[in-house]
TrEMBL record:
<dbReference type="InterPro" id="IPR036249">
    <property type="entry name" value="Thioredoxin-like_sf"/>
</dbReference>
<dbReference type="InterPro" id="IPR004045">
    <property type="entry name" value="Glutathione_S-Trfase_N"/>
</dbReference>
<dbReference type="GO" id="GO:0016740">
    <property type="term" value="F:transferase activity"/>
</dbReference>
<dbReference type="InterPro" id="IPR040079">
    <property type="entry name" value="Glutathione_S-Trfase"/>
</dbReference>
<dbReference type="InterPro" id="IPR010987">
    <property type="entry name" value="Glutathione-S-Trfase_C-like"/>
</dbReference>
<feature type="domain" description="GST N-terminal">
    <location>
        <begin position="1"/>
        <end position="65"/>
    </location>
</feature>
<dbReference type="Pfam" id="PF13410">
    <property type="entry name" value="GST_C_2"/>
</dbReference>
<keyword id="KW-0808">Transferase</keyword>
<dbReference type="InterPro" id="IPR036282">
    <property type="entry name" value="Glutathione-S-Trfase_C_sf"/>
</dbReference>
<dbReference type="Pfam" id="PF02798">
    <property type="entry name" value="GST_N"/>
</dbReference>
<feature type="domain" description="GST C-terminal">
    <location>
        <begin position="44"/>
        <end position="188"/>
    </location>
</feature>
<protein>
    <submittedName>
        <fullName>Glutathione S-transferase</fullName>
    </submittedName>
</protein>
């Protein structure tokens, strides 16, 4: 996880082979009955949902400066963009990918995709990061998500979005995790097929 790397956090990671359905096995369902990742245990505290994990970790390591503190004028905007991701952007993208209508505007979590995307790109255009000059956990969340969504054509890779993705993914933490993830994926595939990792 890129955020863990950015924070320099000492976290014991358990890797699940999602293709093999390990996230649906009793051992993991005992941690998170939803079978979703990420799930984080800090002592007896269970934190799930990607945005929840990001908020928790960034606040847990305040010395790294990836979450504006309570009282910081940027705290509200930071929380806005963290919540906007999970409550509006992700549902809009899922509906778009599945070619579903958002439903009645008064009942929709986000209204319409075009407005959601314009709200985001207007903010990114002010850059370089969501909170201006300050890089935060929100950028780790959004940069990774936009990289993935543009790769699959769910979100158009406009110049503003492409430049933002590049700023976030060119950071050393992102590069280190990407390299480790590639090694891990090769090892999992080798384990599944009985061959040696490439």
């Amino acid at each position: 996880m890129v955020l863990v790397e950015e924070l320099g956090a000492d976290v014991d990671t358990v890797v699940l082979d999602m293709k093999a359905g390990e996230h649906r096995q009793p051992a993991f369902l005992a941690v998170n009955p939803m079978g979703k990742v990420p799930a984080l245990l800090d002592g007896d505290a269970l934190v799930t949902e990607q945005v929840g994990v990001f908020l928790f970790l960034a606040d847990r390591f305040p010395e790294r400066g990836l979450a504006p503190a309570i009282g910081d004028p940027l705290r509200g905007p930071y929380l806005r963009w963290m919540a906007f991701y999970g409550s509006s952007f992700e549902p809009a993208c899922i509906d778009r990918a599945m070619k579903r209508e958002p439903g009645n505007r008064g009942m929709s979590a986000y209204g319409d995709y075009e407005t959601v995307l314009r709200t985001l790109t207007d903010q990114l255009a002010r850059g370089p990061y969501l909170l201006g000059e300050r890089f935060t956990a929100a950028d780790v969340l959004w940069g990774g998500a936009l990289g993935w969504l543009t790769m699959f054509g769910i979100v158009e890779k406009t110049p503003v979005i492409a430049a933002y993705i590049e700023r976030v993914t060119s950071r050393p933490a992102h590069r280190a995790v990407t390299a480790r993830d590639a090694e891990l994926a090769a090892a999992l595939e080798a384990r599944r097929t009985g061959g040696a990792p490439a």
